[in-house]
Every structure is written in structure tokens, then in C-alpha cells.
């Protein structure tokens, strides 16, 4: 087992009296993707800034690509790529010039830099706009240029801070595809997001950050199993049936909740096999359901259960 | 549009070449090129940066020309000949304040954030900015001098050589002051603050000096400021050079002050730049 490419132990960060991070531990093995999930202000960007040597931590230790982020920042910077929340490209330069600039700064010769820039523009689908100034690019193109810029030096570890925030659905899909290809390519990645489906789709491990603390970590399926609840939903046509069914289900030891408007009964169950018990109870009460379904927990449920907060700023995206 | 990424290309193909950073020289070269591009390639920017000194020259030569008749004014010198060395200095200080403003907008738009996450030395970024402003200053001052000679009848006793020497002195002063404004940009939050403070400092430096009228003609308390103002020494020095006087000591004092200002400015700017990300 090789050492993790990102390893953080007990990271805290205070800005004056505000504690942005409070004892965060993470470990990302080579070639895997950690999805860091949290609301605005949960501390995601602060953690990324610490791990990319942009700001010092208050206490704790962290190693990225085998180097200490505090003592050996220069070596960390040589091996990482960072794409922040806001596309950091030079708007007065063309896409091509932007990438050449980065490559030259990383030590490529003029010829190498031009070749790498051309290749990346081609890969990221912005070859047609290569000579246009970046200020004329659409939001999606800028993000792709920004991502290309962070890959110029073929980094060992890539940090993507909310790579799709503010993008339209099509650009988001395009971005996902690019990220997934990087993942398939074996890039170690830390990706922050507010979107649950994004974490579910792209990350191997999901870490949920709330108010500077990690409240849960694990594979998406594990998190769902731990926190989420399997439910059986029963829809009934006649209002009278709802009451009868509720009594029958309670009699069978279940705890249905009642959605009056839509004639729904929602019953938390331990496993899919409990479906039979639901059917039997309804049958005994001579109630015929119009619809019966088993619902897997979504990451939304997990997220809400863990953070015990409502999503105020962003309407959440339901994961399928 | 669906983008297809070929995995082998993202990281593949000559992966044996590891780019892990470039030397200080390359960094400065590449970044100066980037910073100089708009200075010489953006026609709008060139037009406006030249327009301001021309308007100043026009206004001052008309508004204050009667000063040449007053007893405090040196004999046998036309007001234009007296004024142009000062305009060189005010132009150079304006360029210097622009250095700070350019730096703050750079800090804002995220390009510098990317550079900080790369193996790029802070001092390269700052030197590149400074070199670009030196280029801009050289261009503007040359335009001022040429137009002053062609349009306003500027023809001082020191000849072309004297005027070029005056220009170089103004350029050096502006460049060293630029470091103070760069330092300010890295320490202060918000480009509005930087701009407001820069203009304030600039106005005091320009007007409480020997720029537009002889020091002796200023009210007492402003005279006191003017006598310790480095710009006064600079302008006096530049006038000595342009008018062919053999005063000399003002030039040496100016260069000495510039050297001190540069050392202080560079060290403050580098410290401020390293610190920028740390107050997020």
C-alpha cells in the first residue's frame, strides 16, 4: 500500500474568532477521488486553500504528494493543479496564450509549451476559440480553459473547488465528462461541491463537511445505508382508506407517516423484505393500494440528516 | 456540445517530461511579457495614458505662464522650459500610482491566485509588474518630451542630451515610487482604497513641490513640505539637467532617495504579496 496522496491530520483554521475548520482529518489514496460536500461556508474552500499552500493552517499537519504543505510548500506547488471557484484565466490573453504562459512558467520550452497548449485546447473542445481573447469566452469555456490550465504541468494531485457552480446544465455535463476522464486516467483528486449528484457521480469517497467539522465520510452507498432510511410508499385513492390503512399498519408494528394531500402513507422499513409485511397488513384491512413503491434513500436525505439544516441558498438537486 | 476527452492525452504523451517549475529569469521574462502586452498593444490605453500629460502641459502652460513675470522666477527661462521637466515628473508619478492599481485588479481577477498555487516566486510577479510600468513610463515620457518640443516650443538650454537625462531621472524616480504603490496594493484591501490613497499621496507629492512654481513663491508651510519632498529634488535635478545648469547635487540626492525608496518598497511589496492569500 502506497502512502496517501493527500493526508491531513487534525487541521484547524481560525480567522480571528471565527473557526473555519475544526479538527479535519482526510486521507485520499493515489488514484481516487474525494468528494468534499458541504454548504456555502462549511469550510470547503478553506481546506482546499490550506492543502494547496495558499494559506497556513492554525494547527494540524498535512502532506500532499508526499510533501509537507507547511515546510515544503514549493515542492507541493510543483505537483498540484488547482482550479478555484472563479475561473482564474487572463482575460486579455487568448486561450492559447494563457496555456502557453502557464507551461512556460512551469519550465517548458517555447515549442513544448505551444504543443501542450494546442493539445489541451483540442482535448477540452476550445480549439476553435484558441486565438480569441478569454474575455469573449462563455462561462463553460472559461471553466474548461481554467481546468486545462491546471493540468498543463501534468499534476499528481488535482484540486477542483466547485468546478460546476454557476454553469448551465450542458456545460455541467461536459465538465463532468472531463472530470470523469481524469478520474479514469488515475488522477488523484479532491473535488468540492454543493451538489449531491455531482459528488455521487464523480467521487469514490464522500466527506461531508458542516461548520468546519467532518460529519460523515465513506462511499456514497455506505453513507446512504448508515443514515438514510429505506421507505415503502403507499398511495390510496379513497380518503377513508388512508385512515384504515394507517390503523392496520400501526397494528402490524410499523410507524407510517401520513401525507394528507396526496393520500400517501410513508413507512420506514428495515429491508426490502418488509414490503411483504406491508402488503399483508393492507390486505387484512381490506384496503387496496393504488400504488406501492420501495424508495432508496437519496444523498439529499443523508445530507440533511447529517447537517440538520435546510438548504437555504441553493435548491438541492435530487440524485436519481 | 459534448466534449470527448481521450485519457491517454490528458496525462499521457511525453509524460517523461516533468515540468516542475522554471528559473527566476524565465519567470520574470514570461510575466513581464504578459504585463507589457497591454501597454504597447492596447491602442485605447496608449491614447489615454498619453492624453493626460498633454492636457496637463496645455493647461499649466496657459494658466500659470504669468508666473514667469514674477520676481521669484529665474531669469531668461521660458515657462514651458521650466514646466516640462516637472510634467515629466508628474507623469512618472501617475504611472507609479497606476502600478498599484494594476496590481490590485490582478489580485482580484484570480490570475495571481493561480500563480500563487504554482511554483512561481512572488518576487518574479512583482518585478514583472514593475518592468511593465517602467516600459509604460518610458513610452509616456518620450511622447511628452517630443510633443512638448514640437507643439509647445520647448527648447531648453541643456539641449537634447539634457532633456533625455531629465527624462531618465524622472523615469527612475517614478519606478522607485512605483514600488511603494505596489506595496500598498498588496497590503490594502480593495482597489478603491488603493486608488483613493494613491491619488492623495500623488497630489501632495506633485503640488507641494517645486513642480509648477518656484519653491520661494509657495506659502511658508507648503514650502516646508516642498523642501523635504523627494519630487522637489527630482524636479530641481531634472531642471538643472534640462536647462543646462551645473547644480548637480539635486540629481545625486534624488538618486539616493530613489535607492532607499526602492529597497523599502521592494521588501514591503514582497512581504505583502506573500501575505495576500493569508487573510482570505
Rg of chain B from C-alpha positions? 22 Å
Largest interface: A-B, 54 and 42 residues
How would you sum up the global shape of chain A? Answer: elongated
Distance between the termini of chain A: 34 Å
Taking pLDDT < 50 over at least 5 consecutive residues as the criterion, the unreliable ranges of chain A are 309-320
Which blocks of ≥5 consecutive residues of chain B have pLDDT under 50? 1-9
Assign a percent range to the helix content of chain B. over 70%
Ends apart, CA distance between termini of chain B: 36 Å
Strand content of chain A: 25-35%
- How does the overall form of chain B come out from the CA principal axes? elongated
What's the rounded overall pLDDT mean of chain B?
Answer: 82
Structure, explained:
The complex is a heterodimer of chains A (320) and B (280). Chain A is α/β, with parallel strands linked by helices. Chain A has helices spanning 44-51, 73-79, 95-105, 110-123, 139-151, 169-184, 196-202, 220-227, 239-251, 274-284, 299-307; strands at residues 6-15, 18-28, 33-37, 59-64, 67-68, 80-83, 157-161, 188-193, 205-210, 213-218, 230-235, 257-259, 264-269, 291-295. In chain A, the strands form three sheets. A six-stranded mixed beta sheet of chain A has the order 6-7-8-3-9-10, with helices on both faces. A four-stranded antiparallel beta sheet of chain A has the order 2-1-4-5, covered by helices on one side. In chain A, strands 12-13-11-14 form a four-stranded antiparallel beta sheet, covered by helices on one side. Chain B is mainly alpha-helical and 280 residues long. Chain B has one domain (23-279). Chain B is built from eleven helices and no strands. The longest helix of chain B is centred in the middle third of the chain and has 31 residues, at 79-109. The model of chain B is unreliable at 1-9 (pLDDT under 50). Chains A and B meet through helix 2, helix 3, helix 4, helix 5 and helix 6 of A and helix 1, helix 2 and helix 5 of B.
